Amino acid sequence: MAQKPNYGIDAPNVIRNLLLAGAAFLAIALAFPKVTVAHVTFLLIPGFLWPAGWFFLSGVLMLVYAKRGKFRHRDRILAKVPWTGAESVLDVGAGRGLLLIGAARRLTTGHATGIDIWNAEDLSGNGPEALLNNISLEGVGSRTTVKSEDARKMTFPDASFDVVLSNLCLHNIYDRPGRASACREIVRVLKPGGLAVISDFKLMREYEGEFNKAGLEVQMCARDWTGTFPPLRMLVARKAA
Fold first, then answer.
1. Could you please report the per-residue DSSP string of the chain?
2. What's the CA angle centered on 111, arms 110 and 113, to 5 degrees?
3. Chain centroid, CA 97 distance in Å
4. Are 123 and 87 in contact (CB under 8 A)?
5. Is there a contact between 62 and 15 (Cβ–Cβ < 8 Å)?
6. How far is the C-alpha of 164 from the C-alpha of 7, rounded, in Å?
7. Most buried in the list 1, 78, 138, 190, measured by CB within 10 Å?
């Protein structure tokens, strides 16, 4: 059987912890359905079933996103770019290549570069080997380059890319000055007239502020409450020509 590309499970430890927490609340509810204090009996099942259900549902929805929803969301991100096929593209936080490969498949004479530091907590099986394997399986090796680089300090020259993409990456930089540096680097490497499409589940107003401060024209898109969990939001930022 031919090997298929594998884009991994996003935030696997978070999903595991949510499901374990749901199981723990359910176990407590079943083991101690009621308790009597000072001759007064309290039913514990309803109180513990609500958090059990919330944790289970959150974990399942995140898993559904990881297996199906992120492919739809990738297409929504890429649809924000008016592709000609000749673009030079940068994917910040390439992971196992979901956006990078999606962009490369839209190119003819253009080229897509992916950078990452591959944190295993962000994505199951996260690493350059998994990314390169997916690139090979998808047949876009001639149109892609992979580099191990920190988004806060890129080595690319100024005005290197027509398009910069990033999904669920910048929030993993835990300090605000670091995230601001990453936003400034995105602006720096973007060509005049170039487009950045950034997606995340939090801190989007912070990114918007950084891009506005740098003089980019920013459009904030509506949060996707139906196809992603946690609900993701996109911004589209254009650099003046």
1. ---------BSHHHHHHHHHHHHHHHHHHHH-SEEEETTEEEE-HHHHHHHHHHHHHHHHHHHHIIIIIHHHHHHHHHTTS---S--EEEEES-TTSHHHHHHHTT-SS-EEEEEE---TTTBTT-SHHHHHHHHHHHT-GGGEEEEE--TTS--SPTT-EEEEEEES-GGGS-SHHHHHHHHHHHHHHEEEEEEEEEEESS-HHHHHHHHHHTT-EEEEPPPBSSS-SSPBEEEEEE---
2. 155
3. 11
4. no
5. yes
6. 20
7. 190
d(Cα 79, Cα 51) in Å, to the nearest integer?
A: 37
8 A C-beta contact, residue 49 and residue 25: yes
Number of Cβ atoms within 10 Å of the Cβ of 122: 21
Q: Kindly give the confidence (pLDDT) of every residue in the chain, 241 residues in length, as a single tens digit, with 9 standing for 90 and above.
A: 678 999 999 999 999 999 999 999 888 877 776 656 555 555 566 667 888 889 999 999 999 999 999 999 999 999 999 999 999 999 999 999 999 999 999 999 999 999 999 988 889 989 999 999 999 999 999 999 999 999 999 999 999 999 999 999 999 999 999 999 999 999 999 999 999 999 999 999 999 999 999 999 999 999 999 889 999 999 999 999 9
The answer to whether residues 140 and 104 touch, using CB atoms and an 8 Å cutoff, is yes
Instruction: Tell me the C-alpha distance between 107 and 116, whole Å.
Output: 21
* Residue 62 burial (10 A CB sphere; 0-12, 13-18, 19+): buried
Asked if 201 contacts 62 with a C-beta cutoff of 8 angstroms, the reply is no
